[in-house]
Specification:
Order of helices and strands: HHEHEHEEHEHEEEEHEE
Mean pLDDT: 94
Largest sheet: 7 strands, mixed
Shape: globular
Structural class: alpha/beta
């Protein structure tokens, strides 16, 4: 069971309720609050490129990076002709980020940071983002909080559409501070109409605000701030998602 090999083909169907326009609105609020030096934006762990497309249509020059070839294939198809400049996509892991030039901002959304379960790899990823950011560039990402991940332990969820069906259960390990999602997936083939079955295992690590802030500082970031879920205020106790912004010194 490897992440996204099978899920990529039905990911958009199962995440139809994600409001990417609202996420893009929120990102732009931060861009207005702390203007990046330009409009070249990296969408790190871009998945199927829905947020990439939303920002490209708003005039940003987008680069999408993801380690899953299957997800990137969906992203490339979705973003054909999107925006004044069509986004480009690279198959890379976060900690091995290697761009052709500099970027003005980096966004890493929908708890993608939690998916880096090795803190040493995450530290390297932050360092790579810092390396390619222009001076004054902004890094924005979100994480699921430890409280949210712990609360998922033992729960079973069902997601269903006309052509996709997913049952998944969550197990949280306090020892490793990771939440494992065991997914049983069914996807209808578009040509034959037959159903295919797949299994995947996903893991997220619980990181605290002090841990992530310290990692960002070690990577060279300054002006580090945290915010509530899609809010412009500091996070409150019990919130399930926290946003970070950090800047590379001019």
């Amino acid at each position: 069971m490897s992440s996204y090999d099978f899920l990529a083909g039905c990911y958009d169907q199962l995440t139809y309720d994600v409001r990417y326009a609202a996420w893009a609105d929120y990102i732009e609020k931060h861009f207005r609050r702390q203007p990046p030096p330009g409009k070249t934006v990296l969408d790190l762990a871009c998945g199927t490129g829905s947020l990439t497309r939303e920002l490209a249509l708003r005039g940003y020059e987008m680069i999408g990076v993801d380690r899953s070839p299957e997800m990137l294939a969906e992203a490339a198809e979705k973003n054909r002709g999107a925006g004044p400049i069509e986004p480009i996509f690279l198959c890379q892991s976060m900690e091995q980020l290697d761009l052709y030039g500099t970027i003005d901002a980096c966004v890493c959304c929908l708890d993608s940071v939690n998916y880096v379960t090795d803190s040493r790899r995450l530290q390297r990823a932050f360092q790579r983002v810092h390396l390619f950011l222009m001076p004054g560039g902004l890094f924005l990402f979100d994480v699921n909080t430890p409280e949210k991940l712990e609360a998922l332990d033992g729960q079973v969820f069902l997601d269903e559409t006309q052509d996709a069906y997913c049952v998944w259960r969550a197990e949280f390990s306090r020892r490793s501070r990771t939440c494992s999602y065991f997914m049983d997936l069914f996807r209808r083939d578009g040509e034959s109409g037959l159903w295919r079955r797949g299994e995947e295992l996903h893991r997220e690590r619980a990181y605290t605000i002090p841990e992530l802030s310290a990692m960002l500082e070690r990577a060279g970031f300054r002006d580090i701030h945290t915010f509530g879920e899609l809010k412009m205020r500091p996070p409150r106790p019990g919130e399930g998602r926290v946003f970070f912004t950090a800047r590379k010194e001019p």
